[in-house]
Write a structure and sequence with these properties.
The protein has three helices and six strands, in the order αβαβββββα. With 173 residues, it is of the alpha+beta class. It has one domain. It starts with a helix and ends in a 5-residue tail after the last helix.
Length: 173
């Protein structure tokens, strides 16, 4: 009994020290905050022909993570970029008339370009608004561009976000 009590105390001490270590090594606050306004009304963020909330949320989470990751190259230290996404229409669409086995296959053609509508605000370290606006991101020539990672199902939307960041924000030093 004494041995098991010592073992439990040792384990508790280890867990406490690890949680303290995790708090010390936590990431600093992100330079970019991404909010999805009313995602249930978006034009097309479906993971299948009928789509699910879980699939939609997973897709939006990937876009959020990508935007946070990429924006660190454009948002300087101390600045804060707040992005509110108001609509998303993924490249391609589901064409159920192709048959039952194709109902969950997203067909990508020129007639189904990627679209992202957003509002943004860039603030400085002092809280002063440096830049803000609304953008309707479109790329009608999205299939003409070279994409390195053809296995990424969101490569067209990510390229659209990259183009926006490059156009609206100078590279952070």
């Amino acid at each position: 009994m004494n041995t098991s009590r010592r073992w439990i105390c040792s384990l508790a001490t280890l867990v406490a020290s690890l949680s303290g270590w995790a708090a010390e090594t936590a990431q600093p606050t992100e330079r970019t905050e991404v909010v999805f306004a009313h995602p249930d009304t978006y034009a097309d963020v479906r993971d299948s022909s009928f789509g699910t909330d879980k699939g939609r949320d997973a897709i939006l989470e990937q876009l959020k993570d990508y935007l946070v990751l990429r924006s660190k190259y454009y948002v300087a230290e101390g600045q804060k970029l707040t992005v509110t996404v108001t609509d998303v229409d993924l490249a391609g669409d589901f064409e159920p008339w192709r048959g039952a086995e194709m109902t969950d296959v997203r067909v990508v053609k020129d007639v189904y370009p990627p679209k992202v509508d957003l509002e943004f605000k860039l603030t400085g370290a002092n809280g002063k608004v440096l830049k803000e606006g609304k953008r309707q991101l479109r790329d009608l020539a999205f299939l003409s561009k070279i994409n390195i990672d053809r296995s990424d199902s969101l490569r067209f939307e990510k390229a659209l976000l990259d183009d926006w960041l490059r156009a609206d924000f100078p590279r952070a030093k």
